[in-house]
Inverse folding.
């Protein structure tokens, strides 16, 4: 059961082969067994979880079930969930119990889904290894000495170790896709504005986007149907007609289902810095796509190598502004001892934030400070447009872009923890789509030395349904996405 | 633009972060590395390029000027921090938040 698709789990519930309470308890038992080692979850509340499962069973019995009703999900601890401890991986919010629900949580609740718990993450989503979490690192289920990636590392390990049916994540510079690559599952960052950011703790507001982390493209499509939608409480939520992201999946049939599809291969994504074994796996996946009828086109994204410098101006700038709200006055950590108001601010923030968060606040404060704005922030916004324009040009030649998700497989814990620049390079292939606001996806494409390798798909704005079809076609003829770590 | 310890302390103060001399030295090394990465931008000619602040070409929505939020003061104040300085009380009183005296 733990390896079943969401569709199969839903059918099992509909046929009364299993109740939601039993299904939920199975996952809770696995969590109790493995979480002390893996540290994927940082907040659990079996009473709340099972109450939702019981309610789901009633709903199913009444014939009111929706596709996700009764299925247990893990929620990244960046989403406020009423009555749940919601920490964003930070000491700053260690005692914060959310007084309201994020849009994403409300959508899952309304669909009758069950919340298994809140997952570990890099502090305020700033990191690519989950090592910046105040609540400790997360182990990669494929190799406990290695990191799961980040920032959605807890959700990633929970999906990979089958400690949930699927999970949510957020992606500001690669935080869904890079862990999906390192832990071997399917993750999708939607077009900016498709999923409301209401109740999602802010890091870099012009880049943050929530998305599904699941075993397959089909599972991601079902979750997208629940997660997307217009929400007036998010000023950047896009008011578009509701889409069925599963609509094309059943058309993927025959030996060449992707005939006519043009796949763009950006030369910059296969250049220096890419691990040779990862490159080999990615090339094999692309060869499989040719067999499915797709043609490949060589393209160029000439400014893509600038995406890391641009990101490390814009994201810290937005973060320094967003995180100014943590002042120890109304909620969050307040220092135990202080003299005056300024001293209270300084001590509360210094004690409440970890080293990486402080670094990014300092960078952001510096690039926005008087005299430097034009040289850094304005310049970065100008290059951001060049990066976005590269994609506009590329999508005249192709329908979807493919390349590696991450430059390497999962690295050892501690290996990059003391070198921020080396850590930042983990997101070299994922950041450009965040800057452009485009959808990006990572799907399992094979292994290198026993560790999962992800293939990245990048699509045009609002082209998620086609990307999911393209990923689904690959998952019909390969079984990398079904591989499970041994011993778990 | 090379940073020095004085810059780090100035920025930290602007960001309302307390930083010891020892931390400032370590921070200087790391921030200099990050700024070195960022410096790559300066080689790009961006004359006449319109800055991009947002990925979608949308304008700010307007709504009717009516009250939509309900009063949840007590729920919100249940997350108030502890007063500190030896007090185990929450930093709230009569629906207000308590902070050190700022006006004599």
């Amino acid at each position: 059961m733990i390896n079943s698709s969401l569709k199969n789990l839903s059918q099992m519930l509909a046929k009364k082969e299993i109740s939601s309470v039993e299904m939920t308890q199975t996952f809770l038992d696995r969590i109790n067994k493995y979480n002390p080692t893996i540290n994927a979850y940082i907040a659990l509340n079996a009473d709340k979880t099972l109450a939702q499962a019981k309610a789901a069973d009633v709903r199913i019995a009444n014939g009111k079930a929706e596709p996700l009703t009764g299925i247990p999900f893990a929620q990244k601890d960046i989403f406020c969930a009423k009555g749940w401890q919601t920490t964003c991986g930070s000491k700053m919010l260690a005692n914060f119990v959310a007084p309201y629900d994020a849009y994403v949580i409300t959508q899952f609740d309304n669909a009758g889904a069950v919340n298994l718990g809140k997952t570990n993450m890099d502090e305020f989503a700033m990191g690519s290894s989950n090592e910046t979490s105040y609540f400790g690192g997360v182990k990669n289920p494929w190799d406990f000495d290695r990191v799961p990636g980040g920032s959605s590392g807890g959700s990633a390990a929970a999906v990979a170790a089958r400690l949930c049916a699927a999970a949510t994540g957020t992606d500001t510079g690669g935080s869904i896709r890079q862990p999906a690559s390192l832990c071997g599952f399917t993750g999708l960052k939607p077009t900016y504005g498709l999923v409301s950011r209401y109740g999602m703790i802010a890091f870099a507001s012009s880049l943050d986007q929530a998305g599904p982390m699941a075993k397959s493209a089909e599972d991601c499509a079902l979750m997208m149907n629940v997660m997307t939608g217009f929400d007036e409480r998010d000023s950047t939520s896009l008011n578009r007609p509701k889409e069925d992201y599963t609509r094309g999946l059943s058309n993927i049939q025959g030996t060449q289902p992707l005939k006519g599809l043009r796949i763009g291969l950006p030369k910059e994504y296969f250049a220096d810095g890419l691990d040779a074994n990862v490159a080999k796996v990615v090339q094999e996946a692309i060869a499989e796509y040719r067999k499915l009828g797709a043609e490949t086109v060589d393209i160029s994204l000439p400014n893509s190598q600038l995406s890391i410098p641009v990101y490390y101006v814009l994201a810290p700038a937005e973060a320094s502004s967003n995180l100014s709200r943590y002042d120890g006055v109304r909620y969050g950590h307040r220092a135990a001892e202080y003299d005056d108001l300024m001293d209270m601010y300084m001590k509360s923030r210094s004690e409440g934030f970890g080293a990486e968060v402080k670094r990014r606040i300092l960078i952001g404060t510096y690039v926005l400070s008087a005299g430097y704005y034009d040289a850094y922030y304005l310049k970065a916004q100008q290059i951001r447009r060049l990066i976005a324009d590269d994609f506009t040009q590329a999508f005249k030649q192709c329908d979807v872009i493919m390349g590696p998700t991450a430059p390497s497989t999962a690295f050892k814990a501690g290996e990059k923890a003391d070198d921020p620049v080396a850590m930042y390079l983990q997101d070299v292939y994922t950041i450009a789509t965040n800057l452009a606001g485009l959808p990006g996806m990572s799907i399992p494409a094979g292994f290198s030395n026993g560790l999962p390798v992800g293939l990245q798909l990048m699509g045009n704005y609002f082209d998620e349904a086609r990307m999911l079809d393209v990923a689904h076609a690959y998952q019909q003829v390969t079984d990398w996405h079904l591989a499970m770590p041994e011993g778990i | 633009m090379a940073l020095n310890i004085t810059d780090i302390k100035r920025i930290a103060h602007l960001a309302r972060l307390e930083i010891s001399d020892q931390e400032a030295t370590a921070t200087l090394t790391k921030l200099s590395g990050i700024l070195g990465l960022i410096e790559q931008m300066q080689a790009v000619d961006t004359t006449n390029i319109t800055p991009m602040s947002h990925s979608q070409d949308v304008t700010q929505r307007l709504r009717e000027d009516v009250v939509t939020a309900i009063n949840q003061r007590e729920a919100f104040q249940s997350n108030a921090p502890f007063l500190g300085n030896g007090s185990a009380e929450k930093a709230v009183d009569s629906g207000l938040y308590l902070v050190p005296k700022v006006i004599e």
Remarks:
- The two ends of chain B are 42 Å apart (CA to CA).
- Chain B has three helices and four strands.
